Amino acid sequence: MKLSYWMAAKAVVEIVFGICFVLLPVKLGSIFGMELSQSGALMAQLFGTAFIFGSIVLWLARNVSISDVAARAIMTAVVISNLIGFIITLLASLAGVWNALGWLPVVLFFVFGLGFAYLLFIKKSA
Fold this sequence. Notes:
The protein has 126 residues and is mostly helical. It has one domain. Helix content is 79%, strand content 0%. It contains 5 helices and no strands.
């Protein structure tokens, strides 16, 4: 399990979602079964910029050593943000806020959070 693969994979997922949120927020919302108002579309676009930021950081850092302090900081941020994202999207899915496609972000937050947590807390000592 290599950090560079996880960083690259998460960067690709985030850039795809980020660009879609920025350029097509209402369409993306409708795919997930949500109706976005003008202000909701603006929030989705701002959310998309955060995804684009994250993808750039992950892509540029993908070749750093797992023991590098910057890599550890990025992994910590990914684990914490994915835990929060997992909880929020899980609650939204259980409450029926969006359609069945809403389980995709639940799974993505869970898988990436778990993968980066493994690299951060377990693999370093292995």
